[in-house]
Amino acid sequence: MGIQTISIATHKGGTGKTVTSMALSAALARRGKRVLLADLDPQGHSTIGLGVEANDGLPTVRDVFTEPPVPVHRILRHSGVPGLEILPSNIRLERAAQFIYMRPRREELLRRALAPIRPNFDYIIIDCPPSLGALTETGIAAADFVLVPCQMEARAADGLVDLLELVTVLKGDGFQDWRILLTKVDHRKTITNQAVQAALSPWESRMFKTAIPQSEPLNQAQIERTDIFTFDAKSKGAVAYDALTEEILSYGR
Ligand SMILES: Nc1ncnc2c1ncn2[C@@H]1O[C@H](COP(=O)(O)OP(=O)(O)O)[C@@H](O)[C@H]1O
Ligand SMILES: [Mg+2]
Which pTM does this prediction carry? Predict the structure, then answer.
């Protein structure tokens, strides 16, 4: 199938989109892949989390959406991880996003912007904001695989149908290249876990085999502004994201 661009998207906040984007990008870069992490969230958490300063007046991902756009190669920055570059974001993207709605064929804006640099990367990971708005539309439209992180908590499956509907609208009816990733799994929460598994049962065949456990070092690495493998490669979170990376690589073979 040859996955190259992976969009990490849900309408909900706090489900692990950013943590997954950072860990997957870093894991791929550590395997010698050339990786771009495109931060599409105005909160800029993956930009900050990987040690990039985006409030210095230089162009950010926002400038991809201006008319005319700034070429992406002028916006990229090196992260602290060798082989991993970042398309940085900051809060200014928030206002720019409102104007995207008025643009013709708006969902194609990111895909077209990334096209010239695609050959320079083995993987492009897109960290979407927590909404089904215009930014997420551009993120999904640019992807050839959609990863949907689902946090192990009550109401985990709410809104999933709407997200999948948006994926179908953007990618077409037959699009099969999406998977659900369980995140923040705590095995002690038996009742919650059973409820979530039941709510997700219609999509049983769409789940990644790997699930991501609750793991405090994933929080701490962000505070240190480094990736989880540099911070603590032996932590449960790092081991799980390593397994997820292998699973994704196996899809591409
Ligand atoms: N597996 C995990 N274990 C512990 N904390 C996590 C885990 N995944 C995410 N977090 C924490 O939960 C919060 C929300 O995660 P984040 O990736 O920022 O979600 P999103 O990008 O979907 O809003 C962050 O503080 C993050 O550090
Ligand atoms: Mg996020």
Answer: 0.97
Main-chain phi, psi angles of 154, to 5 degrees:
-55, 145
Regarding the beta carbon of 19 and ligand 1, being less than 6 Å apart is answered: yes
Q: How far is CA 215 from the centre of its chain?
A: 19
- What does the pLDDT look like over 40-96, one tens digit per residue? 999 999 999 999 999 889 999 999 999 999 999 999 999 999 999 999 999 999 999
Peptide bond before residue 129 is cis, with ω within 30 degrees of 0: no
Residue ranges of domains in the chain: 5-248
State whether the beta carbon of 214 lies less than 6 angstroms from ligand 1.
yes
Q: Roughly how many angstroms between the first and final C-alpha of the chain, as a whole number?
A: 7
Q: Is 184 in the pocket of ligand 1 (CB under 6 A)?
A: yes
Residue pair 151/160 in contact by the 8 Å Cβ criterion: no
**CA separation for the pair 188, 168 (Å, rounded):** 36
Distance from the alpha carbon of residue 162 to the mean position of ligand 1, in angstroms: 22
Question: Angle at which helices 236-252 and 17-30 pack, to 10 degrees?
Answer: 70
Residues listed for the chain: 253
- Closest-lying ligand 1 atom to the alpha carbon of residue 183: 1
Q: Which atom of ligand 1 is nearest to the CA of 213?
A: 1
Domain 5-248 class? alpha beta
Q: Is the CB of 11 under 6 A from ligand 1?
A: no
